[in-house]
Structures are given as structure tokens and as C-alpha cells.
Write the C-alpha cells for this entry.
Amino acid sequence: MLNQPIKDLKKARILVTNDDGIHAPGLKALEQIARSLSDDVWVCAPEIEQSAASHSLTIHRPLRIRNISEQRYAVDGGPTDCVLLAVEQILAEHKPDLVLSGVNRGGNTGEDVTYSGTVAAAMEATLLGRRGIALSQEFADDHPVKWATAEHYGPDIIKRLVSVAWDTDTLMNVNFPDVVVGSVKGIKAVRQGRRKLGYRLEERLDPRGRPYVWIGSSRQNPFFEGENDIVVVKDGYITVTPLFVDLTHDETLERVAQVLT
């Protein structure tokens, strides 16, 4: 099945969320993007940062929704919780046509998408029958995040993406390169890449002399070069990757079925 194009974004209801928290500068950037597209924008984001929360759902304690201001809410949970509560509770009588997640502080390419709360929020939107787009801004630790790049190119990319039909089990993952606006080389639709993880595990001692381990983020080179999100965004392009929520591998399913029947 296909989600039909959104013909007039000005009349569409847009929900904005993230995983960096309600006070994150990337959320402010995404709100500006959304408000340039529609007159009906709602925000529901985590109270505090929930990076790498993935598609987790809070089920062992109650969740609290805080109304910050008109059409802006914070939830003491993760990004998946925020989308679920916004779609099924806050906006239950008039659900959003589009869910935008981000703009994340840091890229979400390759295997990052399996850990990312930003991508998970867009995935939750997809599972709830809404269109979901995750947006992330690459950056290096030694200089400020170039939010202006996402702000400049985001509206046009979103307009283009919602102008075509998508499979109902698909979300869009957008990554902006770590370059200033005038240095962006273009936009490319590419597949998800893959890298060998090289996590930096640092063992230390706390003030009482007890050992603990801190998981750092260290990435190694991609398994393959070419047209994938990891390589292309590093080359200065904006990348767009459709992600499919059905994780079934059909070819392996057929082979397994043969030995089980």
C-alpha cells in the first residue's frame, strides 16, 4: 500500500519531535522549518536528552505530559513515547499528516539508524500510519554545528519528499553534511551504508575506587565505498535514504522454510 502525496503542506498538520530534548537547538531549527511549511505545527519532545534510545517504549512506569505553551508539549520519556502520546492522546481527534524528527545533533547514517532515537520517532510515526521523516546534521567536535545548513535546505527537501507516494511501511532518513550552506554539493537518494563498529571502551575508577566502563563512540571506515549514506554525506551531499520497517529477509526466509517443512 502507498501513502498518497501531501498536495498542500500549508494545510497539513505537522508534529515535530526529537531525541535531544525539548530545549535542544536542533528542535528549534526543525520548528522553524516546519512553520515555514505549515500553519498548523505541534511539538512533543522528551524533557531531557534521549540520544541512542532507539525504538524503546516506556511501559514500567507512568508517563507525564507537560504543556509548555500553546501547541508545545514535553514528555518525561523517550522519542517513541512522545510520538505515541502525541498521535494517540494529544492529537487523537485530528492526527498529524506528517511527523518530523530532529534536527539531530550529529548524523544518523549506516548502523546509527538502529540506535537512533531520531530515526525511531519517525519509525513510530510510520507504524501509526503517519508519514515520518528523520533529519540529522553532521558535525565535527572541533567547531559549532552548522544548523543553518539544515534550516536552509530542509523545507525544500520535505516538500519534494511528500510530493511523491511512499510505501506505508517506509520512513525517510535525511542527513545534512558538515558544510556551510554555499558548499553543499547537492542532494542524493542513496542506500544505507554499513561500517565496522569500533567502540572505544574506557575502564575507569569512581571516587570510591570501584571500576566502571564508559562506552565512547568510535567509528571505522565503511565496509564498501560508493553510493551510500556514510560516504556521500562525508563528500558534502545531503543524503535521503528510505528505510523499511519490515526487517524480514525474504530470501533467507525461503531457505529456512525449506528445511522446516
